[in-house]
Amino acid sequence: MPPNPEQLLLELFTVFVSAKVVGEAFERLRLPSVLGEVLAGIVLGPYALGWIRPSNIVYSLAEVGAIFVLFSAGLEISPRDLARVGNKAMQVAVAGVVLPFLLGFAYMKLRGDGSSEAVFVGAAMVATSVAITARVLADLRMLSTRTAQIILGAAVFDDILGMLLLAVVAGLAHGGGPRWAHLLILAGEATAFALFMMFAAPRIVRTIEPGVEQLSTQNASFIVALAICLLFSWLAATIGMAAIIGAFFAGLVFADYAPRWNLAPRVTGITEFLAPFFFFTIGARLNLKTFTGDVLLAAIVVSLLAIVSKIIGCGAPLLGEGWPNVFRVGVGMVPRGEVALIVALVGLESGIVLQSTYAIVVFMTAVTTLIAPPVLRYLFKGEIAPTHQSPRAAQVQL
Amino acid sequence: MPPNPEQLLLELFTVFVSAKVVGEAFERLRLPSVLGEVLAGIVLGPYALGWIRPSNIVYSLAEVGAIFVLFSAGLEISPRDLARVGNKAMQVAVAGVVLPFLLGFAYMKLRGDGSSEAVFVGAAMVATSVAITARVLADLRMLSTRTAQIILGAAVFDDILGMLLLAVVAGLAHGGGPRWAHLLILAGEATAFALFMMFAAPRIVRTIEPGVEQLSTQNASFIVALAICLLFSWLAATIGMAAIIGAFFAGLVFADYAPRWNLAPRVTGITEFLAPFFFFTIGARLNLKTFTGDVLLAAIVVSLLAIVSKIIGCGAPLLGEGWPNVFRVGVGMVPRGEVALIVALVGLESGIVLQSTYAIVVFMTAVTTLIAPPVLRYLFKGEIAPTHQSPRAAQVQL
To answer: Nearest-CA residue of chain A relative to B228?
Structure first.
C-alpha cells in the first residue's frame, strides 16, 4: 500500500521549502544556494536537530533529482564542444585521480593504518561530485564556458575512474585482494559505455528523430527524451557505474535537439522540483557528532589533502592557459559527493574499515562540498556572465 | 537507507515506458492515451500478468503525479471563469451526487444487502474522478470551453460532497452510525477551505507577488507556486479531503499569473513525467479475477446505474443549453476514480463490507473510467478545437 498522502505531502513540503528558504538566504549572502540546501539537510536532518528524518520516498526522489541535475547539465553541453575539450578534460581527470589517491593512501599509511584502510580513503578522495559543481556553474550562468566544459568533461571521466577504484575496494572486501578479472570487465564496460554514448547514441537519435516527430502522443519528443534518460541511467547503474553518469550522457545526446524540441524549460521544471531533495539528503546524511580529537585531526588533514591534490592535479594541465583557469578548474574539481559517500558506505558495510575511517571520508566529503562553491563563485567573478541571454544563445556565440 | 538505484530506475523506466507505449497505441486508434496508460497497469500489474508490481515509491510518485495533473488543470482555468460557471456547476454537482447515491443505495437494498453495504456502495458512486476527465479534455484541447469548465467546477464541488459521504461511511465503521458532530466539523472545514481558496488565496498571492519577483533564487516564482501547491495539497489532505482538491485550488490561484511567470511549460514538464505513474497504478490496483457470476451481475447493474445516474443527474441542469451539452457534461462526470477507490478501501479495511461489495465498487470504477473517455471524445468531436492556439489564448477569446 502507498504511504499516507498526508504524511507524504507534509514531508515533501517541509524538505522542499526548508531547502529553498535556506538556499534563498545563501543567495542573498552571495553564497551559492546549493550550499544552503545542503545546510538545511545538515541542520534539520536526523543527525542534528532531527526535525526532518527523510523517508525512503525522499531518498528515492533525491536519486531521481540527482539524475535530472545531470541530465539538465548534459543538455547544456553540445557533444561537439565536449569533444573539443575532451583531450584536456582527460588530462585533468587522470592527474586529478592519481594525485589524490596517492596522497590519501600515503597519509593513512604514515598514520599507521592498514593497507585496506589506506586504499579505501584514497579511493574515496578520487571522484568529483559533478552535480554540485554543475549546479554552481548553472547558478552563475557559466555552464557554456570552455572552463566549465573542461570541468564537466573531466568530472565525467573521473567518475568512471572513481568507479573502477570502487570496484577495487569492493574486490578487497570480498576476496582479500582486488579481483582483476572483475576489474577488467568493469573497465571494459565503462569504456564501451562512454564510447557508445559519445559516438553511437547520437546517431541512433538522429535515425529515430523523424519517427519521434510523427508520434501522436502529446509532447512526444519530451517523453522520448525522458524515457532515454531513465534508460541510460539504469544502464549505467546496471553495469556498475553511477546512474548519474548515464543521465549526463543522455543529456549530451539530446543537447543538439534541445532548442528545436523545446526540452529545456520542461526538464528545468522537473529539475527545480526534485533537486532540492537531492541536496537536502546530502546534508541529512552527515553526522557531525562522530568526531573526537584524533579523528577530527585526521579528517582535517585528509580534507586539506583532498583539496590541495585536486587543485594541483587538475590545475596542472591548464598551466598554459593562465592562472585564473588553473584555479577555476582545480577548485571546480574539489567537491566530492555521492561517489565518495558510496565508497564510504561500501567500506563500512563490508567491514573492511572502522567507524572512524568512515567518519573521515564523510567529513572530507562535507568540507570539499561546502568549501568549493563559494571559492568557485569568487574565482568566476571576473568573467562576464551572459545574464540576459539563454545559456544556449551564449553557447552559440562561443 | 534509500532503495537500490538500479532497481528504482528499472521500475521507473518500465512503468513510464509501458504506460506511454500503450498510450501511443491508443492515440493511434483515436482513443484517449490515458485509457492506454490505465490498461498498461491492468495488464502488466500484479493482478494480471504480474510483470510489474509497483513499489511504494511508484505509488508515492503516482500520488504526486495526481497532484500535478490537478495543479495543471487548475492553472488552465481562471477563477473568474469558474465563478461564472459556479452556479451551474453547483447544480450539476448536487444533482449528480443525490441521484447516484439514491440509485446505488436502493439497488443494494433491493438485492437484499444490509444498510451499511448499501450506504457504502452509494457513497462510492458519488465522486467523479476529475483527473481523468481533465486529462481527456486537455488531450482534446477543450479545457478552456465553457462545458469543460462546468465539468471541472462540478467535479470540484462533488469531490467535496463525496468526501462528506466518505466521512459518513467512516463514521458508520467506527460508531455503528454516522457521527454527526464529526460530519458537521468536516462539512464546515470543507466549506471554509473552498471559500478561502476562492476568495482569500488569490488576494494573498496578489499581496506577496511583488516580493516573489524580487527573490534571488533562480525561477523563484515557479518555486513559490510549487511550494504553495504542495502546501494546499497537504492542507486538503489534513482536514480530511482529497489532496488533489488542494492542488486543483492552488492551480486556480496561480492561473492568473501563469502566463507572466511562464509556469505552464515547467509545470507541464513535471506533470508529463509523473502522470503516467498515476494512471498506471490506477490500472495496477484492479483485480479482474474476483468476479464470479452473481458478483459480476451486480457489478454490471451498479456500473450501469453509475453511468445513467450521472448522465441524467448532471445533464439535467443543462437542458436549456441543448442536447450536446447535456450529454457532454453528463458523460464528463461519469468516471469515478481515486475517491471511489478510497471509499472502497475504507469499507474493506474497516470490515463493514464484504470482499464482493469491494469488488463491485472496483469494477464500477474501472467501467466508468474506461467507458467515459472514448464517449467524451466522440461527443466533443463536433466542437472546433483551437488547435493552433495555446489554451490560454483560446481562453482570452471566450
So the answer is: A13
